[in-house]
Amino acid sequence: MISPLAEQFRESMRRTASGVAILTTDGAAGRAGLTVSTFCSLSMEPPSVIACVHQGNRALETLLTNGVFAASVLAADQERIALAFAGMIPELRDDRFGSAAWRTLATGAPVLDNALASFDCRVAEGVNFGTHRILIGEVVAISANSGDPLVFADRNFRRLAAA
C-alpha cells in the first residue's frame, strides 16, 4: 500500500522532465542493460556521474559485479532503444542489445553508436536509499554527437521544441 504522501510525490514528480539514458555493462558477470531517467553529473574533478537503479532490477547485480558501466544518453529519435531496455518490446526482452549497434570505449561496457553522449565509467561507489541504489561512476572515457535529447515527462517520451 502506497502512503498518501508517496502517491502525491509520484504524481508531482511526473511533472518534472529528465533526459533518458541506457546503462550497460559487460564483464565476468555477463552483459546487461536498463533504461534510466535519473542520470546526471556529480563532479568535474574527478569527472563523475550519478545514476539511480531500482534495487529489484535484475541488471543491477551484474553491473555491480562487473564494476563498470556506460551511460548512453539517448537522442530524440532513439525512443525504441529506451523501450527495448525498459523491457517494453516483447520480441527484444531476451536480446535488448539487438535493438541497436554498439561499440566499446575504455572499460569494455557497451556504448550505443550514435548516442547523444556516452560516459564510460568505473563504479566508484553505490549507496542504498529507499528502493534504489545510487551509483556513482567515475568517468574514464566520453563520446559525443550532435542532436536533440530524448526527454521523459508526464510518463511519456517527449522531444524538445524551441521556445
Low-pLDDT residue spans: none
What structural class is derived from the secondary structure elements? Answer: alpha+beta
Order of helices and strands: HEEEEEHEHEEEEEE
Which value, in Å, is the CA radius of gyration?
Answer: 15 Å
Dominant shape: globular
Task: Compute the number of structural domains.
Answer: 1
CA distance, first residue to last residue: 41 Å
CATH superfamily: Electron Transport, Fmn-binding Protein, Chain A
Structure explained in plain terms:
With 163 residues, this protein is of the alpha+beta class. The chain has one domain (4-159): Electron Transport, Fmn-binding Protein, Chain A (Pnp Oxidase, Chain A, Roll). 16% of the residues lie in helices and 44% in strands. The protein has 3 helices and 12 strands. The chain has helices at 4-13, 58-66, 79-85; strands spanning 18-19, 21-25, 32-36, 39-44, 47-54, 68-73, 102-104, 110-112, 117-129, 132-144, 150-153, 156-159. Strands 3-2-6-9-10-5-4 form a 7-stranded antiparallel β-sheet, with helices on both faces. Strands 1-11-12 form a 3-stranded antiparallel β-sheet, with no helix packed on it. Strand 2 (21-25) and strand 3 form a beta hairpin. The radius of gyration is 15 Å and the shape is globular.
